[in-house]
Amino acid sequence: MADDSYKTIKQVAEGYYTEKRSRFISYAIPVRTVEEVKEQLDKYRKQYYDARHVCWAYMLGPERLNFRANDDGEPSSTAGKPILGQINSNELTDILIVVIRYFGGIELGTSGLIVAYRTAAAEAIAAAEIDERTVDEDITVAFEYPYLNGIMRIVKEDNPAVVSQKFDMDCEMTLRIRKGDAERLKARLLKVESAYLKD
Q1: Residues forming a β-bridge with 14
Q2: Secondary structure of residue 43 in the 3-state scheme
Q3: What is the mean pLDDT of residues 67-79?
Q4: Which run of H or E residues covers position 197?
Q5: Whole-model pTM?
Q6: pLDDT tens per residue, range 131-171
Q7: Which residues form the Impact N-terminal domain (predicted)?
Q8: Residues paired with residue 134 on neighbouring β-strands, in sequence order
Q9: Which helix (DSSP H) or strand (DSSP E) does residue 122 occupy?
Q10: Which of 22, 25, 106, 171 makes the best surface tag, with the fewest CB within 10 Å?
């Protein structure tokens, strides 16, 4: 996978696992911010208020550097870490996985818990539709009107998304392109007379 793309999930997916009468209900949820993570956790805690544990892990951002895991009262590293492990081994980001446990009366032991949370998380991911996205960069180019054709030819050839445009005596366009292609596009735009890039 290129360093200007990342994998996430398209919509909420659900998984399910039972072990010795303990039930594990798992959800993989697309999220973009820590605020969204908190909102989703509140929602699932309310929905499953009678569950023994609501354990979770999340990973945010294309660089996959923002992550947390929580055992919610299970023995240390038996729940959150295995959930996070599944996010990692599937190379996903912008995702929250919540695993709700209803205790069945029989202790599973630490290794049993790790397997159960890992499997429940894997089930939710398996049910999810994976989406590969690119890390994009916005480039704003300003130029004089007579050079519009030259700029438009480059736009047509390199095919960036046009975020905004204003055509007057002085023209301005904001283009969005995959990070890996941004330098080449900038170089081409700057070759057009009178064109300059704005921050």
Answers
A1: 27
A2: helix
A3: 96
A4: strand 196-198
A5: 0.81
A6: 999 999 999 999 999 999 999 999 999 999 999 999 988 99
A7: 20-125
A8: 5
A9: helix 109-127
A10: 106
Q: Are 158 and 184 in contact (CB under 8 A)?
A: yes
Distances from the Cα of 119 to the Cα of 58, 60, 65, 113, angstroms: 16, 22, 24, 10
185 touches 161 (CB < 8 A): no
Residue 47 vs residues 23, 42, 50, 51, 166: alpha-carbon distances, Å: 15, 9, 8, 9, 48
- For the record, the structure tokens of 154 come out as 């480059």
The helix/strand/coil state of 12 is coil
Question: Residue 161 has which token pair?
Answer: 């998304």
- CA-to-CA distance for 101 and 80, rounded, in angstroms? 12
60: β partners:
66
Tens digits of per-residue pLDDT, 39-60?
999 999 999 999 999 999 999 9
Q: Is the dihedral of CA 180, 182, 185, 191 positive or negative?
A: negative
CA–CA gap between residue 142 and residue 155 (Å, rounded)? 14
- What class does CATH assign to 5-133? alpha beta
**Is residue 2 very low, low, confident or very high in pLDDT (cuts 50, 70, 90)?**
low
Q: Is the pLDDT of residue 1 over 60?
A: no
